[in-house]
Amino acid sequence: MQRLDLQELVRPWKEAIEAPPARDRVWLHGDLHPRNVLVQDGALAGLIDWGDVTAGDVATDLACAWMLFAYARARTLFLEAYAPPEQVQARAAGWAVHFASGLIDSGEPRHVQIGLSAMRRLAGAEE
Q: Between 10-18 and 86-106, two packed helices, what is the crossing angle to 10 degrees?
């Protein structure tokens, strides 16, 4: 496995922190990662584990882009379809760094792998 250069994560983290905070609160799933997304025949079939449902910054759930999509083109299409303002996308990348860190720290092997993959994507290293 390729080692991750954590310096590559400074940019998305810094841009997230410098982005203006969300002004609107929306309903969030709060825990969108691959183990909570059900896919059937290549299409979204459902979401499970709604225990973290809350209201907050839409960027929180948009962080899933780096956890769900292994290829940059897929992430681009996802974000283009949603069309978040630049500051929302910056905050989403910051949330992705945060969530990936938590998944890695969990010690649960499947979560660790999701977190490491997301970190690589955030750092610009495609799998």
A: 130
- The three-point CA angle 75-97-40 to 5° equals 40
Tokens of 119: 């970190």
In a domain, 47, yes or no: no
Q: Total domain count for the chain?
A: 1
Q: Is residue 91 part of a domain?
A: yes
Collapsed DSSP state (helix, strand, coil) of residue 27 = strand
Q: At CB < 8 A and 24+ separation, what contacts does 68-76 make?
A: 68/32, 68/33, 68/34, 68/37, 69/121, 70/117, 70/121, 70/126, 70/127, 71/126, 72/121, 72/126, 75/121
pLDDT by 10-residue block (mean), the chain, 127 residues:
77 96 96 96 95 96 96 94 96 97 95 95 81
Whether pTM exceeds 0.90 = yes
Decide if 33 contacts 63 (C-beta within 8 A).
Answer: no
